[in-house]
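To: structure desk
From: M.T.
Subject: fold request, one chain
Message: Could you run this one when you get a chance? Sequence is below, nothing fancy, just the single chain.
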Amino acid sequence: MQPIRTFNVSPALPSRLEPLRKLAYNLHWDWNFETKELFRRLDRDLWESSRHNPVLMLGTISQARLQEVAEDEGFVAHMERASRQLDDYLQERTWYRKHRNEVNGQRTEKKQENSSASSLSPQDSGLRTQECYAYFCAEFGLTDCLPIYSGGLGVLAGDHLKSASDLGLPLVAVGLLYQEGYFAQYLNADGWQQERYPVNDFYNMPLHPECNPDGSELRISVEYPGRTVYARVWRVQVGTVPLYLLDTNIEPNNPYDHDITDELYGGDLDMRIHQEMMLGIGGFRMLKALGYKPTVYHLNEGHSAFLILERIRMLMQEEKLDFAAAKQVAQASQVFTTHTPVSAGFDLFPPDKALYYVGHYADIYGLSHEEFLGLGREDTGDLASPFSMAALAMKTSSFVNGVAQLHGLVSRKMFQSLWKDFPLNEVPITAITNGVHARTCVAKSTQELYDRYLGPQWSDAPVDDPLWERVQSIPDEELWRNHERQRSELVVFVRDRLV
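Reply: Done. Structure tokens follow.
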């Protein structure tokens, strides 16, 4: 059982340095070197020891140092410059405003203009009542100090949120907030891999607890066999995109239920299905509690596929649709991205376990148990086959894609049985090749080089943009000098990590 609450005594931030708080709680600093250098300048050693966590820094730095920089005109000018950059960034939303439905864009701007306070969080703005895309994923790799990811899936999801923010897309993301996250790896003296699970202190991380209008914690509930499990809601602000995370480590949950959001990909099959019910069903209820009405639900891998069960239930009970119509409506607004190139990588649950945990939806739908299990079976006629989260997601989505052209081909072969009468090349699984968020991945000196010769828009330019022809204007000597600098920094980094 993890601690329910901790109390911290923090230094008081001088009023002149108040912009630091705003900068610290928006992850825009992760891909803006001006802000990153500001926090490094505040205390270089603390920046490194905190795993680049500006919130923890502001909570542990000495009061004397804060008073010192408050009187440093150079530091204050640097802070105000970074603050203006964040304000300009949050107000632009250029691509979406220019290219998406003009009427929708005007309605959004009008709603924002009518809001009386610039400090409103995104869920208070007009975006939640207009076009909105909900993005569900089990992990998000955003920055070092938020260790709630394990690898490629999370890094892709994190870059997806950052890119959506750059474009000004009305995206809202949903995940779980893990107390221990994913294990950290290290090698012992004999060369064997060891794991450790550092405990996350949410109150010293760049996230906010969401509250009701009366100031109480916002909580949602999900029914599990024999009990109800509650979760509170936290928000991570990723530029213009809010990421909402569910946390079950609260009263009145029992110790087992505290651990639903304990570790990423931890535990046995029962714990996995507990986590995926909370992500899919709980995530849907959370968005509803926050006032969002998403236009499209995007499932990034199959962990959140139980979402569709709750959506169908809601459409049947609140909109008075029958099962067939509710399923069709839900499917029309759901898309699915698969990442796994091997069948063993998908979550499979024995039929009796699936029925034990989510079988009550069959009664709501008016389906037999076998008809219900057929929603998650590749072969509905095989009564012994397991319930597949990937099959459930594919059968209930109107668009399915892999993450590379080759992966699209592999996926069409893997799941051709879902479309038995289709030739392989017509199986409706397409591919969108993974990309990265340029401002996160490209080194500072390289970004400065591109800014000088290509202009500041290079990070948003597609591959066929004439802008890239300007690469030829970069002097060979300058390009090679930057390359050697990056190589030497890599050597220093590796040596530091080995120590």
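Reply (cont.): Confidence is low (pLDDT under 50) at residues 105-126. Let me know if you need anything else for the meeting.
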